[in-house]
Amino acid sequence: MIDLNDLRARPDAYKKAAKDKNLTIDIDAFFVLDEKRKALIPRIEEARAKQNVASKKIPQLEGEEKAALLAEMKTLSDDLKKSEAELKAVETEWKNMQFTFPSVPLDNVPVGKDESGNVEVMTWGEKPTFDFEPKDHVELGEALDIIDIPRGAKVSGARNYYLKGDGARLQKAIMNFTIDHLHAKGWTMFSPPLMATYECFMGTGFFPGADENQIYVVGGKDEKTGTLESDNLHLIGTSEVTVCSYHKDEILKQDELPKRYAGHSACFRREAGTYGKDTKGLYRVHQFEKVEQVVLCEANEEESLKIFEEIRKNAEEVLQALKLPYRIIDVCTGDMGKSKIYMQDIETWMPSRDSYGETHSCSYLGDFQARRLNIRYDDPSADSGQAKKFCHTLNNTCVASPRILIPVIEQYQNADGTITVPEVLRPYMGGQEIIGQ
RNA sequence: GGAGAGGUCGCAUAGUGGCCUAGUGCGCACGCUUGGAAAGCGUGUAAACCUGCAAGGGUUUCAGGGGUUCGAAUCCCCUCCUCUCCGCCA
């Protein structure tokens, strides 16, 4: 959600943002509605005020006087109902339009049409070289019986998989290592709900929009009627949805900000429209595990950007501990989504793809989500008129698996087909050094 | 899944069609009192929106939505949530 006063003050900034983010929206049409609404409201409020005055008088009156006022109020009430219906229609559209409006990206965000406009900012680490013919993670995983994709497909359809034995243990180890990494820095762990209401998806900016068909609806067959029923819940595609919504409709205290939350959860994505894309292996799957960083902080861009660096660094530290080469890219306007105002991706080197693959996504959303979720904080230093402000929110992957297993398995493979367990993960695997011996 | 009871201001409660501009208690803030504190006394105690330079004025909000009515916290319908009992169950 955007600030309407800001929209009215600088409509051109929003028109440019929409254009840069490849959104087709009609801001001028919105202003027509906005005016209509503003004209209707005083009319309705005036009628209601009259009604309130009459309501006090009526019980004191008797006979003709009373009948006359009742008749007058009947007419007023009928008119009022018409105006209210009109306002409701206008306001519904007025609100729906607002949900489609983008936030305005920061000035330093590269303008671009799609991912080809993204800009590499830095790289870290040496790409691995092998003195034998390296295999990809699927071949290695199946030979070691730690990844089973055919059986995943048998049981749950394409893009599903089993991690098995040391494969499952390796994923657990990476999750636990990452959780401990954040815990040591004072982050609060969450094991959040995996299902959430439409409002939470709306509040975090995923609904309404194209993302909607990426999300699974929780439903079931009604035994009596045999028809498919929806439970009006959706499976989260990221714990950002339920962790961020944790404080929905709350007023936080300034001195308890920033809130640093780490959500560890399974994530579910339909991956609609990606048929034929990344079909091989564990890159693009319907279900994965993720430790997500979510921060709610004060509405202060400078401070927020420091936190942005902090959460990106937290993720980098995990990759560095795993000794996985990666690069950071500035995501351009056309690739960042309507809610974000600044975004960087971390891409980790994946030998079998002979390229970097996206493993992390770091986003700064300004007050976009907090407005939709109605999360505010008390600012005692502010003027009394504006003591309650909307928070700013940020989020970044800390680690997501099995995608991260691709570089881990491929980079740590040995000539004999075994996999060396990264040193930092060994304590999480009972000291095990090699998978496949 | 079945039966029942509920959802009112930060919390607890009162409120069965106009006296509700939602009372009372607690909490909180400020003031008086005091050497200081407690107690006591007094005052205040939300959000959103409209209007206005401002002071102010107005509207809405009693879980949410719809209805009846000149008028709804209160009556009717639907949805959500909570609790109790039964059933099932990790």
Explained architecture:
The protein is an alpha+beta fold and 437 residues long. The protein has 2 domains: 26-98; 115-435, Bira Bifunctional Protein, Domain 2 (BirA Bifunctional Protein, domain 2, 2-Layer Sandwich). Helix content is 37%, strand content 22%. The chain has helices spanning 4-9, 11-20, 27-57, 63-98, 137-143, 149-156, 166-184, 198-203, 240-244, 301-321, 368-373, 405-411, and strands at residues 119-124, 147-148, 162-163, 188-190, 195-197, 217-221, 228-235, 251-253, 259-268, 287-297, 326-330, 342-350, 355-364, 376-378, 388-390, 392-401, 419-420, 434-435. Strands 1-11-12-13-16-10-9-4 form an 8-stranded mixed β-sheet. A 3-stranded antiparallel β-sheet has the order 5-7-6. The structure holds one RNA strand of 90 nucleotides.
SS field, number of helical segments: 12
At the first level of CATH, what is the class of the largest domain? Alpha Beta
Helix content estimate: 25-40%
Roughly how many Å is the radius of gyration?
27 Å
Coarse shape: elongated
* Quaternary structure state of the chains depicted: single chain
- The chain-level mean pLDDT equals 90
Total domain units: 2
Strand content: 15-25%
Low-pLDDT regions: none
Terminal residue distance: 54 Å
Number of strands: 18
Would you tell me the structural class of the helices and strands?
Answer: alpha+beta
Query: Major sheet: order of its strands?
Result: 1-11-12-13-16-10-9-4
- The assigned CATH architecture of the largest domain is 2-Layer Sandwich
What is the fold-level CATH name, i.e. the topology of the largest domain? BirA Bifunctional Protein, domain 2
> What name goes with the CATH superfamily of the largest domain?
Bira Bifunctional Protein, Domain 2
